[in-house]
Amino acid sequence: MRNLLLGALIVPALLASSAASAFDPDTPVGKPEPAFPITLGSEESETIDIAFRAAFGLGKGAVAMAAREIDGRTYHFRPAAIHLLPNNVGVLLSLGSLDEAGHGDGGINAIHYLQGGPSGWQKQGEWFDRGAVGTVGNAATSWAFSDAIGKNPYLVTAGGGVWQGCAISTATLTELTPDGPVDRAGFTDAMSSGAGVGQADGEYEGKIVAAEPDKSFTVGYTGTRSFTQRYVLKDGKYALVGADRVPGC
After folding, report:
1. pLDDT for the residue 82
2. Are strands 237-240 and 227-234 parallel, antiparallel or unpaired?
3. Tell me: the pLDDT tens digits for 166-204?
């Protein structure tokens, strides 16, 4: 079973970006040629450190971590990755953890738009309620970027947890529009059950295997059964065509 709570076990000063199971398609569910294109974003320490300081208003010499109170709770943020948009705009993803969190408490993802220029990064906007998060106070546990889903780049995050012997992870597709990030879709990217009383054994791993930009994308599943599910854009959101064949917890 894939470890869905990596963020709860390892919290380094600079969290390494890692591709979620949502991204690296494999056979036998129709691997495209070439493989579905993704990038992990820059993790070059100086670049991301300077961007993080600008986003959170940290002075020179400050430790690359920041605390923010959101809805009465304090989250501790660390930088994860930065992705460049046209016109020298950087999109910074930071991960906010919640101390003393209960099982059902999620962390929070921070997305900042930063304008690059001769004087460095200048904050253009910030959002604290986008993307997928995990349980027990964890933000997203994996993330990556793709230019293949639409005319604008997409950030794809994933996070999940374990409930009475059943583990499940959800991926969220966030469009990085010029005016800010917009969540467009979500799907189950991993599920494993059978350890709980009365549960049937089952394991599923879902990955994006194809996309028609700004129209649809397809998720291929392997595991207990192999199949694909297609999502179509309608009224600003991607909706699943037909019934969801992935069991829930």
Report:
1. 92
2. antiparallel
3. 899 999 999 999 999 999 999 999 999 875 556 678 899
Alpha-carbon span 148 to 17, nearest angstrom: 19
Phi, psi of 219 (to 5 degrees): -110, 130
Which SS3 state, helix, strand or coil, does residue 158 take? strand
Helix (H, G, I), strand (E, B) or coil at 63: coil
Number of domain units in the chain: 1
Residue 164 falls within a domain, yes or no?
yes
pTM of the model: 0.82
| Host domain of residue 143 | 6-240
Strand arrangement, sheet containing 180-193:
142-146, 154-163, 166-177, 180-193, 202-212, 216-223, 227-234, 237-240
In a domain, 131, yes or no: yes
Cis peptide before 28 (omega within 30 of 0): yes
